[in-house]
Amino acid sequence: MLEIAVGSALMYYFAKESLDLKEKPVGTVHYTETLDSRNDSFTRMHREQIKIKPAIEDQFRGIVRQAYDYSCGSAALTTLLNGYVNVGTTLTEQQVMNGLLKFGETEKIVERRSFSLLDMKRFVAAVGLESGGYKGEFSDLVKQGQPAIVPISYAGFKHFVVFKGYKNGRVYVADPALGNISFDETRFKEVWENNTLFLINVVPEQRKNLLAIQDADLRHVDDATVNRFAFVNAQYPQQYMEKIADKASTIRLDKNRNENSENYGQSNYNFLRLYYKNK
Predict the structure, then answer these.
(1) Transmembrane ranges (predicted)?
(2) In this structure, which CATH number among 3.40.190.290, 1.10.10.60, 3.90.70.10, 3.90.78.10 belongs to the domain 56-220?
């Protein structure tokens, strides 16, 4: 009797372990593969635990998404403060928005329903940091070696984004509306508004690098590939359909009457197809 009880307990234990009933962290999945591809059998299978995350998380990695259609300025400033400046806490867009309304030109903000670089400068000064808006060439923006807020005119709208860096002819930005995106150098120069940039002066020991370019940012389809394949008419092979149409047609022997043809005067077969047209 004892042997039966022990055996039942062991069977339950091994069944529980084999069914993998333990709780797993959020985002954990298992995939199964053969240990030996030459022997596709149940006994040769194993399961490995991996963690996955939604693509949208990486798209907005390090970026504070704008909560309103007019709040790109506050979201861009929050992204810059959280990702580059060690202020001792993580700010929310609402906190920065309240600060911009308090220390900025409140009446003008309400009137134009947007924030300006001057509003940003006043708020940054209120939290004890030096900052400023500048005008310069593209080379000046790159040589700074630090993230900066830049205004762009894109898709018919004026917009604030955070310049992250430049590499291999592409400009990488943190867009509060679209996430981590990039432009080729020529396109960025076209959309960059008035060559203006906003910098926060931070001593090296108080800097963070959450806005540094990462490998995930480099995974993009270059514009030449998009232009080549995105707007072409798809061409499908027609040989098979042509053969079917020929089989369903009437064959007639005609003489070649084209004087410019090498087969002029010779007889050849023509396939006469019957087409129907809706009235």
Answers:
(1) none
(2) 3.90.70.10
* Domain range summary for the chain, segments of one domain joined by +: 56-220, 223-278
Burial tier of 120 (Cβ tally within 10 Å: 0-12, 13-18, 19+): buried
Round to whole Å and give the CA distance between 161 and 190: 15
SS3 sequence of 6-21: HHHHHHHHHHHHHCCC
**Taking each helix axis from N to C terminus, what angle separates 93-103 and 72-84, rounded to the nearest 10 degrees?**
110
Environment class of 261 (CB within 10 Å of its CB; exposed 0-12, middle 13-18, buried 19+): exposed
Q: Token match 């005119």: residue?
A: 153
Whole-Å CA distances, 229 to 122, 147, 235 = 47, 33, 12
Using a 10 angstrom Cβ sphere, with 0-12 exposed, 13-18 middle and 19 or more buried, the burial of residue 128 is: exposed
**Count of alpha carbons within 13 Å of 169, Cβ hemisphere only?**
6
- In angstroms, the CA 74 to CA 96 distance is 6
How far apart are the C-alpha atoms of 113 and 107, rounded to whole Å?
A: 10
pLDDT in tens, 21-42: 556 676 666 655 555 555 555 4
pTM of the predicted model as reported, rounded to 2 decimal places: 0.65
The pLDDT tens digits of the residues spanning 61-105 come to 999 999 988 899 999 999 999 999 987 889 999 999 999 999 999
Residues with active-site annotation: 72
The kind and range of the H/E element at 61 are none
User: What type of residue is 180?
Assistant: N
Residue 78 to residue 207: CA distance in whole angstroms: 15
Sole residue written with tokens 């069944």: 15
